[in-house]
Write a structure and sequence with these properties.
By secondary structure, the protein is of the alpha/beta class. It has two domains: about 120 residues, Rossmann fold, CATH 3.40.50; about 100 residues, Orthogonal Bundle (Arc Repressor Mutant, subunit A). Helix content is about 40%, strand content about 25%. It has eight helices and 14 strands. The strands form four sheets. A five-stranded parallel sheet has the order 2-1-3-6-7, with helices on both faces. The longest helix has 19 residues.
Length: about 230
Amino acid sequence: MKRLFFIEDDLSLMNGLSFALKKQGYEVEIARTSLEANKLWANGIYDLVILDVSLPDGSGFDLCKKIRQTSEVPIIFLTAADEEMDIIMGLDIGGDDYITKPFKLAVFLSKVHALLRRSEHFHGVATELNSNGITIHPLRHEVYKNGTLIDLTASEYKLLRLFMEHPNMVLSSEQILSRLWDCKENYIDNSTLTVYIRRLRTKIEDDPSNPQKIVTIRRIGYKWHVTE
């Protein structure tokens, strides 16, 4: 049975979604404050986190950052905060999806199912990925370039990992977006992906203006080009 950690201070929403999740066969642990969430997180093992941004005693963003220090558990932000910068920040610091209220229950449950399936895939990959002078240690959430630790946002890390798990395979923009984010809103589109690709190239390419690792395949998508 999958264990879900639901952090939400809206009692009616929490009760309704908890009931729906339990009907789907999930075990649900509930916290209504940051303090309570920190205590439960320290003593529990979870398969997915559903996290409100605005809590009575803190920010869901801060909780997300703390979780990402030790875990790659899927995280869904569930919040009324629908500003574009909040959404992008939530994804960048480690969120896997960002659902804004109001929403349809069927869509919410589909996203939960999809993230759990993707998590099972990631748990089955090699403990280390290595090509083109780049090394990923998934269990430690660390990336090295020629032996030197580099700092990536959570979104950049997920993007790089997707490429390195599919060497020399052309991935369309639609494939990348669907595998990394379940969000369907306009803020996660080809233009946003182009920004993430550009930022990642500045950190891993020797010459970002002439990329050799992440290669653009015109009118199709991108490829992790491995020659070693």
